[in-house]
Specification:
It contains three helices and 17 strands. The protein is mainly β. It has two domains: 169 residues, Beta Barrel (Lipocalin); 80 residues, Sandwich (Immunoglobulin-like). It has an eight-stranded antiparallel β-barrel. Strands 14-13-16-17 form a four-stranded antiparallel beta sheet, with no helix packed on it. Strand 11 and strand 12 form a beta hairpin.
Length: 272
């Protein structure tokens, strides 16, 4: 197990806090797709994952969390490590794909683990935004979680990771500016139901006449369905995705919508 020491994690978090305090002009900025395309994602990412209560109103536990990633084009593979306060842990295999300015990922297999008594390690997944925090490159966002069997939802949580060796990305971050931004897309792609059993409907609204391409990928980055391509007038639209026709056993899918050249995405989960 590639375990990160508590001391080193504390140092990372303290350094980040001091950097923000001593440099008040530094603001968290969500990177755009063109900036993300220039990044070197490979390597270690370290930080924390806060777990929601079942009603998602509070956080009930915080974990050490680490990614060790390998990037080949838009495809990302690697290992995650999660450790609780008692030292119980799980190392899991990761699959993922970069779409626009997000890393879509899912844990697929437990490689080694010490499980808490009476509990399981849920598989985490999600769409994490790449962000600049001073000279740090971060991955932040919601990380829903699902049981190892059938993809039934667990309570989920929020993830905040910092790239440990960021030397190859400094020029990208220097040129990124210091404009703050939230972790919400300006264009919303809604999917219902999510999780789904066999099919789901993709909803979106166009404020102007647009050129649209809608596709679905599995978590390995394989294109599994073309939902639409063409011109659409302003208005509300819905498209149906049927996993039975997708020819993929992934269970985790990404809806990718390209509107007038801008990329938006939403991750969806199939319960089985």
């Amino acid at each position: 197990m590639k375990r990160l020491s508590v001391t080193f994690l504390a140092f990372l978090m303290l350094a980040s806090t001091l950097n923000a305090t001593n440099n008040p002009e530094n603001k968290l900025q969500i990177l755009n797709a063109s900036q993300v395309a220039k990044l070197d994602v490979s390597g270690k990412w370290s930080g924390k994952r806060n777990q929601y209560s079942w009603d998602k109103k509070t956080f009930i536990e915080s974990f050490q969390y680490e990614f060790d990633l390998k990037q080949e084009g838009d495809i990302v593979t690697g290992t995650s490590t999660i450790i609780n306060a008692n030292g119980e842990y799980a190392d899991m295999r990761i699959e993922g794909v970069i779409i626009g300015n997000k890393l879509h990922f899912a844990e697929k297999e437990v490689k080694s683990a010490i499980r808490p008594d009476g509990k399981v390690w849920c598989f985490k997944s999600g769409e994490l935004f790449f962000a600049k925090d001073g000279d740090n490159l971060k991955l932040i966002g919601a990380t829903p979680s699902y049981m190892e069997v059938y993809n039934y939802p667990c309570s989920g949580g929020e993830t905040d990771l910092v790239k440990v060796d960021n030397s190859n990305n400094l020029q990208v971050l220097v040129n990124a500016g210091t404009v703050s931004a939230g972790t919400e897309d300006k264009f919303t792609v809604n999917v219902f139901p999510n999780p789904f059993i066999q099919s789901a409907t993709v909803y979106y609204n166009l404020t102007t006449d647009s050129k649209v391409r809608a596709e679905v990928y599995d978590i390995s980055g394989k294109l599994v369905s073309n939902l639409f391509e063409g011109n659409q007038k302003s208005g509300s639209y819905n498209l149906n995705f049927d996993a039975k026709n997708a020819g993929s056993m992934s269970g985790i899918f990404i809806v990718k919508l390209v509107v007038n050249g801008e990329v938006f995405s939403r991750q969806i989960v199939q319960m089985r």
